[in-house]
């Protein structure tokens, strides 16, 4: 199974020795088809469970209750994980771990560090919204009405169980597979035509970051300002994925960002509308603050730790023997 050569940046990992220009679009079509088939399977299984439970599906509602229906929505997005991993392994003929980082695996210690740093970014956004609320509507409660302890507790359990996989699915598909598919174009410096301006641009990270962030925004059913909000978020974590050589930083912020948003929706009893809606300039500013604080913290931490950003070289198993006299 082919691997990217040592020194390859994250967005170029898909350009292995077996790379051909037609492989990325074919792999993308197969990925979309696999996601669709897996989602159909999940919907059918959920419908069968609902039928056995005595509540046959009606329209788009499978269980007729927002919390289990929301769980199904999260699982549907999580199906991007096996689809992307299988496509990388059997279509692109490369290690599945290459979708995750330049080291071919999930860097667990770095992920935990990023989760701690993501807390700082989310906290900064919360403080901003709290101060804004006190300045604009003094005396008004920061949180809206409470839905109720029973439903809220069950919703929190569902979010904790399934939302991390939902966020990871989007990251593996968009910051992993798609970003690497776009980054695989453009001849390398040692290849024919590698010195042309177009090839130099294609093998750079800019186009891969823009496509990843743009598609991420388009997949969200928001108004234009809401899509701009999501685009800021998506572009920031796409840049961090390239800069850190893996999707751990993107997963960490995505998980905590979604945990806050979905948790508030559960608190207010608006989980059914969690995937749609509109944004305003205040929310957009909060997102800018969140990703700004987080990006700065991740860059400093990555530099301090000397985080690997390119594919490592092959180290000899044993040091070479000293030459004989």
TrEMBL record:
Keywords: Hydrolase, Membrane, Protease, Transmembrane, Transmembrane helix. Pfam families: Rce1-like. Residues 156-260 form the CAAX prenyl protease 2/Lysostaphin resistance protein A-like domain. The keyword Methyltransferase does not apply. The chain crosses the membrane at residues 21-50, 70-90, 110-131, 151-169, 231-256. One of its GO terms (biological process) is proteolysis. GO terms for molecular function: endopeptidase activity. This is CAAX prenyl protease-like protein. It comes from Murinocardiopsis flavida.
